[in-house]
Amino acid sequence: MEGWDRTTKSTLTQIPLLSVKAGPRDGSAWTQRLKEEYKALIAYTSMNKSNDNDWFRISATNPEGTHWAGKCWYVHNLLKYEFDLQFDIPVTYPATAPELELPQLDGKTQKMYRGGKICLTVHFKPLWAKNCPRFGIAHALCLGLAPWLAAEIPILVDSGMIKHKDDAASSIESS
Amino acid sequence: MEAELKNLLSDLHALEDSLRDPTHHSLIDKMRSRVERLSVMENSRVVQRVKIKDMSAEVVDSNPYSRLMALQRMGIVDNYERIREFSVAIVGIGGVGSVAAEMLTRCGIGRLLLYDYDKVELANMNRLFFRPEQAGMTKTDAAVQTLSDINPDVVLESYTLNITTVQGFETFMSSLNNKSFRPDKEGSGVDLVLSCVDNYEARMVVNQACNELSQTWMESGVSENAVSGHIQLLVPGETACFACAPPLVVASGVDERTLKREGVCAASLPTTMGVVAGLLVQNTLKYLLKFGNVTPYLGYNALKDFFPTMEMKPNPQCSNAACLEKQKEYALAKPARDAAARAKMEVEISLEPECLHEDNDWNISVVDDSDVQVSSTSSGALPEGLVFELPSADEFQKPSVSEETTNTVDDLEDLRRQLEALNAD
Ligand SMILES: [Zn+2]
């Protein structure tokens, strides 16, 4: 696991691994996979809360569990920056990872593809491929989104591309 | 516009008649000539050629197909006009796909199916095909606009959707299966699928669809650093599928550590994309019109002007179930295939002239270079200049069933409620 910091590594190893190799077109096998996804997400969320490192909310928005939406946030200089988070489960899941989207940041950073899909590090895809089908949504958030937020949000804040919501309000008042 | 200008002219005429004072007439004349000039400009702007029923080989400056039909006269292609029977699906109308679409349109392809969910942006203007005034349009609509102007004979279908989503995939599959263009065609409704997408996820989806449909397709790609690319032919069951081995990429030939990746996702050059689109469509024409050798894999290293080639057999342990099924079907059809090949060879031998290279004045080696071509299975070593982009999935043992049942909760609704409870505070 070259290329990840110690915290990410130790967190990752505590998220339960999945075993069912099934995607959204695989009928009852997908239901089994979905159960495993929930278990991993429940474990990861609880772990974050007990470590005082709660940083996202995510739920399936349809009964099939193919579209997910929620929020994620990052604290920089004691201020909390919160963003909408969404993604689809691709038909070739889990051979390919879900493409995580932060639509509010679309066009604000180079580290993003069209539609607000975050640009993952060169380390993410190889690790995902190597661990198919054991990694799920929780692992994608831990390995993909968390390091992305940690790398990009400070730059976006410092360069003025994003403003804290209180700050943004006051700047509108003053102008 | 034309009608408006005509009305304006008749208004001017009426105005002239009603004016008693002739001093204003010269001004009205001036206005009239301006309107006439405008209508000439307007007419020259909207000239669009009419549809052509049959491709003609006649060399006149008004025939858009004369130079293509000349391929037939020169003996390169047996029957060029067959191109009008073919349907090609292009997935991804970006820097490679849009140029490929234009090339096929100019070649007079029968029908193009275009898939993309993106919009044209000014940031795309370093690439070919799209124009700045198309910014904001969907890529599919903008492509149809330009392509139908270039060649109204081509039947164009545009699909603005994301093929990786469950819904998008269903539409993708049913559109490939639709045979209304040529009801007597065997197999799916298209002759070839071209993957011109820019990411692994979408390529895996095209692979999935083509494996399920037993559809021959070609993959294309340009590296994120814009200095290498490749094309690959995939025939389900016969060649490696896209999931049989980790994706192959052309090594850039420079020390990877000196490549700066920080701060940007991807670079792009119109040159590399144009080269790859050209290679892709060249292979497409050879495949459809049956001339030359259709390449199984051709890489392009722009820094070293190096073009590696290779062949890949399917992996009997491929993780894709549809691929394994097609491999089985291909193996079962072997006796019939062998018999057909033997029959074809016998015909060719009887037609072959005595000797093509009676004397070799130029001292050129006539050794068949297929002998030295590197052929590799999915597990074997790769030829120089090619590397795997991703590792294979590790072998792993499924946990035994008993382990599975020890889980306390196993109801989906329960699990969903548990996560919602955690999400609530
Ligand atoms: Zn395969």
UniProtKB/TrEMBL annotation, chain A:
Ribosomal protein is among the record's keywords: no
Coiled-coil portions: none
Membrane-crossing residue ranges in chain numbering: none
Keyword Ribonucleoprotein carried by entry: no
Stored Pfam families: UFC1
Keyword terms, alphabetized: Ubl conjugation pathway
Catalytic machinery residues: 119
InterPro entries: UBQ-conjugating_enzyme/RWD, Ufc1
Function, in words: E2-like enzyme which forms an intermediate with UFM1 via a thioester linkage.
Assigned protein family: Belongs to the ubiquitin-conjugating enzyme family. UFC1 subfamily.
This protein's name: Ubiquitin-fold modifier-conjugating enzyme 1
Automatic annotation (TrEMBL), chain B:
Entry keyword annotation includes Nucleotide-binding: yes
One GO molecular-function entry: metal ion binding
InterPro entries attached to this UniProt entry: D-isomer_DH_CS1, ThiF/MoeB/HesA, ThiF_NAD_FAD-bd, Ubiquitin-activating_enz
Ranges where the record places region Disordered: 393-413
SUPFAM superfamilies (UniProt xref): Activating enzymes of the ubiquitin-like proteins (SSF69572)
Domain THIF-type NAD/FAD binding fold intervals: 65-319
Protein name as annotated: Ubiquitin-like modifier-activating enzyme 5
